[in-house]
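tool_log.txt
---
The assistant was asked to compare two proteins side by side. It first ran the structure predictor on the initial sequence, then on the second. Raw inputs and outputs are pasted verbatim so the downstream comparison step can read them without reformatting.
(1)
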Amino acid sequence: MTARGGWRPAGDRELRFGLAGIGSMGRNHLRLASARPDLRLVAIADPATEALAAAAAQSGAQPFAEPLAMIGEADLDAVIIASPTTSHEPLARAAIERGIAVLVEKPLAATEDEARRIVESSAASGVPVQVGHVERFNPAVLELGRLLADGWLSTIYAISSRRAGPFPARIRDVGVTVDLATHDVDIISWIARERPVRAYAETAQRIHATHEDLLFGLLHFPSGVIGQLDVDWLTPAKRRQLVVVGEEGMFELDYLTQRLTFTKGAGLEHPRLIAGYAPTFEGDVAVLPVSNAEPLAAELDAFVDVVRHGGRPVVNGEDGLWAVTIANALLAAAAARSPIDLSDPTVRQPVR
């Protein structure tokens, strides 16, 4: 930690980390941070007394019932914020005020205004903020990005993302769009290499008591790329899939298995008949080599490097702000039953 008003990289010394929140993602951060020899988890905060005591005993960290108290009292170089989404803004800004580098789980915040305040605080102080869009560190995603950069698809036509699974009872403060679809709007924008200029969506609330638990969304990009989102908390089996269709063929990616395939565009002269009557056209399918790894560990590696040496986080506050902005535009589009114009970042209004 440094004095208020300035931030300096920590260099090669042992790093002192804090962890706010030991729910599902927090426990994964606890596991990874506790196993690293180059940092020490010195403080953990969570209001759940029994879980906090168990985590403190496991890690040797000082327990705090209140995350704000931990940030205010513990001597920290960095903090991982894995608490509920609605708490992200006050915790992140408190850490930034004390010169503590921040890794905040996605989404950066619940609303665009909250996310912007975090970004503005980071920019004014120089304290780095990395956002936990963990799919950016998935080896299959990284390989897909490399192949696209190498020109495997000279033109991208469409990007489709499916992120579905059972209802997580722990998520009460936001709906599926802010909680889950922020992953997909970030990845789709990263693949398209541009921000969308128009958003439209339909949502439904079937199980969640207060928020939507199903989203079908469409994003339109300046280049003409169309992004499609299928996100829900209603599917009995977890699915995490991405399809990128372009001029030369199609990539298909499974986030969970880290499997990546490429189907080359087929000629139309020789269709194969299904059951003797339904024509289909199949291109050559290649399973592409991907070295499997744990994305969250790679995310922590990247954050530690920023804390030690400075530089732009792989997924910085601006990226996180845009993901929240697009997610909330999708919600606004569903409420208005009209597309939302995103071409002017100062205007969020239905397209008439």
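(2)
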Amino acid sequence: MPEVDHPEQSELETVVARTLALARRLGATAAAAGASIATGLSVTVRLGEVDTLEYQRDRSLGVTVYVGQRKGSASTANLSPPAVEETVAKALSIASFTAEDAYAGLPDAGLMARELPDLDLSHPWDLEAPEAIDLARRCEAAGLAVDARIRNSEGASVSTHRQLRVFGNSHDFIGGYPSTSHTVSCVVLGQSNGDMQRDYWYTAARDWRALDDVEEVGRRAAERALRRLGAGKLPTRRAPVLFAPELARGLIGHFVGAIGGAAQYRRSSFLLDAAGQQVFPPAIALVERPHLRGALGSAPFDGEGVATRDRDLVVDGMLTGYLLDAYSARKLGLTTTGNAGGVHNLVVQGAMLDAETLLRRLGTGLLVTEMMGQGVNPVTGDYSRGASGFWVENGAVGRPVHEITVAGNLRDMYRRIVALGDDVDRRGAIQCGSLLIEQMTIAGD
């Protein structure tokens, strides 16, 4: 394990160790505890004036105890010994009232992360409020200066957060690591001939030095808003649909939910029992790479202390397995995949096309840049959401369109992906470029 790089980590490890020892002494047959310290600064400026300024410093401890097959959990924001003792006692009390569950319990001891790789996740930003305010003002001002048609703003925000997390369980596992996340965002409104449109842009990174320039974020938001001015509707039709990378990432997110252990054992997934089946075209692969240095989805272990590892989740378009924590794995008669808490850098791979080639491949159809509503049925896969974007004619981006709906079924949509873009969005735990779907229903006038 890496050396402790902060005195607070030693403190949290002591709290976790004390919690586990206390749980055993009070009658728990197994226990897990996680303690964290989170600090942060967030500022939002609107029209040059400070709208919000927030400092954060939170401490928390969560403990789960097992008494045989009975489970109880409790949490506290007070890490003092008396508070810890009271929290453990509460968890044990809750366990005494719960029913036995044959699938409850810790993951197997052999799956714990005994060595923690250095993933370069912590880059604290020594940012004080005046500097953060100045950066937000510069971001917003750059957006407002792009064009006289940018008439208003919903604000520019700058935030920096650092978290130190330590987790342990009664398998003699205690591990922890610090991480940081930093963001700059801007939302502006354009107006022309009675039409008003809004759009946004943002940048996010573990290392603040890797953020885009704040002025570039503001300009990008303004350019996106200007492109949408004069948007109209479309007649209802069927046509190819190209999802911009930030939206394509959401489509893959629905896939992640459908192959999650809970959805599988509850029989509430449109990809029920799909392991071993063709779910994407043969040219597409999905891989999980939890140890990418500095990536936003990287982690040395999951929410249960299980070591994360590289995994090829979709190979030649075929699903190789599910995303499981210990409980769902037991329910399905399988082994946890180290995904308690979600995926860690799920990367969509395949032959990737540049923007010009991708638009030529689209030909005539819809480029979607924003979606509204939550019209997704996770059980049937039926998909129907409000959208806006641009109509593309013969590979050239044309007029902006809005107040339309794109509809299909996710299982069919995944199988009908015909091209990937090289414009990969890495601002989250899912890394994906643009996705071109062969045909969908577009509902308009």
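---
observation on (2): The longest strand covers residues 150-169. Residues 7-227 form a domain with the PmbA/TldD fold fold (CATH 3.30.2290.10).
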